Task: inverse folding
């Protein structure tokens, strides 16, 4: 396959994806499940890819994702809630004077959310990145919890509205907004990972000592990766805030980090395409396909056992365990989807069939 | 003719707790030389390498590169009481560099137990070593504003692989290579950083006589092709005696002999260290 055909194939794939989206947007009623699940999947895929940048590509096992998403979401909310709605949102504590007349357009809000998360990452990165493996995970985990508690604390009542949370957050301008933002962000991440810096990150993942001996400054490269990852985590948090319309500190619990971790493990640590595929699969399964398990069913007079509220999560956990046990490298492993890979896969399939068929034919002749 | 000095290790002592791993090591490498560093197991050879490349900060002493002092340290803190080495008080400055900075100054190394980037291809392994010379920052690299630089890095990498006979394996996973080629790849990766001094830590370990013979010629060749000075740790006496111009012998962290291969072979102290001596 030459470059041109690959390029055309990619364009066709994107066009098909966009076409499907338009079709779903036009053909389904605005209350259809698939619409919101698709949006949520897209947001999760950005969160997953940004976490994968750190965990899968740089080899830094971080558990601070929910924290950075919370920072992004709250920053976005604080800066974009329309001035007119502020009195109703902050009805109990009142709004901080400096913020009373601030309302950025959502596009600017998204960027500010990312920058805020990145800034925070830069501040905590210096001490935290000195820690190795498990200790780094624990430190980032702690950070996520601190963010959650600070956001709900009374100190910031006039900014984050304490435990009441924020509402009246501007939603998506059109149905396609989250997809476009996610597409742009992931495209940037792909470019970054294919650049010389991306390769340096991978080198750090493979062998820190060798990477350092090759002239890669560990501290600064880890910092870069941490900041970049947090920037996109912040954006995904902002998108989440737009999607939900209202956030509280409990919107970003530790469970969220684990959910995203799960997505990248299923998709394959170190694979961007894997993370995207997995976030759609997991979100669809969790939010939609397995919903029927939560409802009691009758087949004729037969009452189907076990089905009740919460059973969905049991089944989901079992599926996860099976995936992790028998498919521990995830869907994609460390590979990315490539046209060459797909072509090779089909050729192998064809060759196998050809190898089999003469044997079968010979047997028939005997 | 005076030789241009590349590396000079001055009174380097490395002490871990109460153990003196390298004791007052003085070592010199001149331009274009191949120098051997030998000694029984646990003599402190690799520790000496780690001191030179910045993995460890020496407890006392200094390292000079091209006549410039790049690393210097003296016993501080708890080490003040614990220090058992010599020359205490001779060095009063503490100036340390991380390994990446030392690599940038032109010292490349390989490792005793091969440390390749395992899940990356041969080509990528070498390409990564070119990263430190990249001038573009993370933004220009991401948005491909410096395409020429990327292009140049790739071309140089390919050239290097052709030169070292690895171009046929360039898309293979680094771990799928046979052992000897992995050693070659590690050297190729070190060469990609454009070093003036190459440190080889047991390049012939695990090789059969024929392979180590090839390696010997290979090391000589890259010295000429890349205008290098080489310091190598090696246990294969055949290799060491074959190509090294001078040899340093370490035992229990202390330098016990230095000189050309013939002197070393006949040095009673070296024979004692390697074979033991009758009471």
Result:
């Amino acid at each position: 396959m030459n470059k041109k055909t690959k390029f055309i194939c990619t364009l066709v794939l994107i066009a098909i994806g966009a076409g499907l989206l338009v079709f779903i947007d036009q053909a389904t009623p605005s209350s259809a499940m698939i619409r919101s699940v698709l949006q949520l999947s897209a947001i999760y895929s950005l969160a997953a890819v940004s976490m994968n940048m750190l965990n899968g590509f740089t080899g830094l096992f971080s558990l601070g994702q929910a924290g950075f998403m919370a920072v992004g979401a709250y920053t976005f909310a604080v800066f974009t809630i329309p001035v007119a709605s502020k009195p109703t949102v902050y009805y109990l504590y009142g709004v901080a004077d400096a913020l009373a007349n601030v309302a950025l357009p959502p596009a600017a809000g998204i960027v500010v959310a990312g920058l805020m998360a990145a800034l925070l990452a830069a501040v905590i990165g210096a001490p935290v990145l000195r820690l190795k493996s498990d200790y780094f995970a624990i430190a980032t985990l702690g950070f996520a919890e601190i963010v959650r508690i600070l956001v709900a604390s009374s100190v910031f009542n006039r900014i984050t509205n304490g435990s009441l949370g924020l509402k009246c957050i501007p939603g998506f301008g059109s149905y396609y907004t989250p997809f476009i933002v996610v597409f742009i962000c992931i495209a940037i991440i792909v470019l970054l990972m294919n650049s010389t810096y991306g390769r340096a990150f991978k080198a750090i993942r493979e062998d820190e000592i060798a990477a350092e001996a090759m002239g890669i400054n560990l501290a600064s490269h880890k910092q870069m990766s941490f900041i970049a990852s947090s920037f996109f985590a912040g954006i995904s948090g902002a998108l989440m805030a737009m999607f939900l319309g209202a956030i509280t500190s409990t919107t970003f619990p530790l469970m969220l980090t684990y959910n995203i971790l799960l997505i990248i493990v299923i998709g394959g640590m170190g694979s961007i395409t894997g993370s995207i595929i997995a976030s759609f699969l997991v979100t669809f399964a969790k939010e939609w396909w397995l919903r029927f398990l939560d409802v009691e069913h009758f087949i004729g007079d037969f009452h189907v056992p076990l089905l009740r509220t919460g059973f969905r999560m049991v089944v989901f956990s079992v599926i996860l365990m099976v995936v992790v046990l028998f498919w521990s490298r995830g869907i994609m492993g460390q590979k990315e989807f490539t046209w060459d890979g797909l072509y090779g896969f089909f050729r192998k399939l064809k060759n196998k069939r050809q190898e089999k068929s003469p044997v079968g034919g010979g047997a028939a002749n005997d | 003719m005076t030789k241009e000095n590349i590396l000079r290790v001055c009174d380097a002592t490395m002490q871990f707790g109460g153990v003196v791993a390298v004791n007052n090591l003085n070592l010199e490498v001149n331009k274009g030389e191949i120098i051997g560093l030998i000694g029984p197991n646990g003599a402190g050879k690799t520790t000496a390498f780690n001191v030179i490349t910045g993995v460890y900060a020496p407890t006392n002493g200094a390292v000079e590169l091209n006549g410039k002092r790049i690393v210097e340290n003296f016993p501080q803190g708890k080490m003040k009481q614990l220090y058992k080495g010599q020359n205490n008080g001779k060095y009063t400055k503490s100036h340390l560099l991380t390994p990446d900075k030392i690599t940038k100054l032109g010292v490349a190394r390989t490792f005793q137990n091969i440390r390749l980037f395992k899940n990356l291809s041969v080509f990528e392994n070498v390409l990564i070593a070119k990263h430190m010379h990249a001038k573009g920052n993370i933004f220009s690299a991401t948005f491909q504003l410096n395409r020429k630089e990327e292009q140049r890095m790739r071309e140089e990498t390919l050239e290097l692989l052709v030169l070292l006979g690895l171009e046929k394996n360039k898309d293979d996973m680094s771990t799928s290579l046979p052992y000897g080629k992995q050693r070659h790849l590690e050297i190729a990766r070190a060469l990609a950083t454009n070093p003036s001094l190459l440190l080889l830590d047991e390049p012939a370990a695990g090789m059969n006589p024929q392979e180590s013979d090839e390696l010997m010629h290979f090391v000589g060749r890259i010295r000429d092709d890349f205008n290098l000075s080489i310091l190598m740790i090696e246990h294969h006496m055949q290799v060491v005696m074959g190509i090294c111009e001078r040899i340093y012998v370490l035992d229990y962290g202390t330098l016990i002999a230095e000189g050309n291969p013939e002197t070393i072979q006949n040095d009673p102290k070296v024979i004692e260290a390697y074979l033991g001596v009758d009471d």
Observations:
- The interface with chain B takes residues 188, 191-192, 195-197, 199-200, 202-203, 206-207, 209-219, 224, 228, 270, 334 of chain A (CB under 8 Å).
- Residues 360-366 of chain A have pLDDT under 50 and may be disordered.
